[in-house]
Amino acid sequence: MLFLFAVISLCAADKPFPKGIYEEVIxxxxxxxxxxxxxxxxxxxxxxxxxxxxxxxxxxxKKVQALYIAGExxxxxxxxxxxxxxxxxAKEDVTAQLDHIIRSNEPLERAMFKNSYKTLTALEYLxxxxxxxxxREQAMALISARTIQTKLSSIASVYEKEEKVxxxxxxxxxxxxxxxxxxxxxxxxxxxxxxxxxWAKKYKSQRDIRRADLYRSALALKGxxxxxxxxxxVMDAVGYVDFGDYAIRSGAKxxxxxxxxxxxxxxxxxxLLNGELLSPASKTLYTDLGRLHNxxxxxxxxALKMTSKILDADGD
Length: 316
Prior knowledge:
Elements: H1 2-13, H2 19-45, H3 51-66, H4 70-73, H5 80-84, H6 94-103, H7 108-111, H8 120-128, H9 134-167, H10 170-197, H11 220-235, H12 243-249, H13 253-271, H14 282-303
């Protein structure tokens, strides 16, 4: 009874659901990502390859990517995440093609015609590779960064434009959040942790950091931690009524407690890796993420009597 009273009292004072999550997480993160992209662009315009600025942009993008719903609000934005970031979706060896452009004399406006050349993946390569033609590489990086900034600005604009309509349809918002939490937790477990560490069946016992997201910038684990913290801001936040609070009020208290405990364990175990994603201790994190995914996909979604538009078991 004391616990329920505390929740009710907190909810009365905090920003209501779902407005709190939308404004404090989805919209705020999109705006921060735009700002980070602008910083990268400005540094490149002055001829600097500012790797700390790239880190801020990359991690801000991970937040946006984890809860990306712009494509559901405006179908013309359905493919935008893949136009910004081709991790696990590359159809070609973009680094080899970028190297070819670096060696060539073709004008960059013509040479950088493919979208894959202007993604975060490409920008990371250009900013963290060993320089061979610094001036040309910096110019290429600037083209990539400007493109990313434009796309992020468009995402933020969609969120601003569609806020009123979505906030009037709580059921739709809940379904979108649930789908993203499920999809993101699957990708965390299988793609971002399981595949590089060799814990996933696809690469059983074959560790290779090159299968990790953001491995060139040594941000693989930080990216994972950022996504986990983003989940936590949806499920167990302070200052607004979060999805966990909503689910408890809807009768899913035990399921929310499970998810919150699992999230807390995953965040703790990721920190214990001390930056070493390939540490044998990553098996504990992999196990945590499996429990988190099941907590969303089986326990929470069942308790809320919702349906999910989720990836197939093989990730396709």
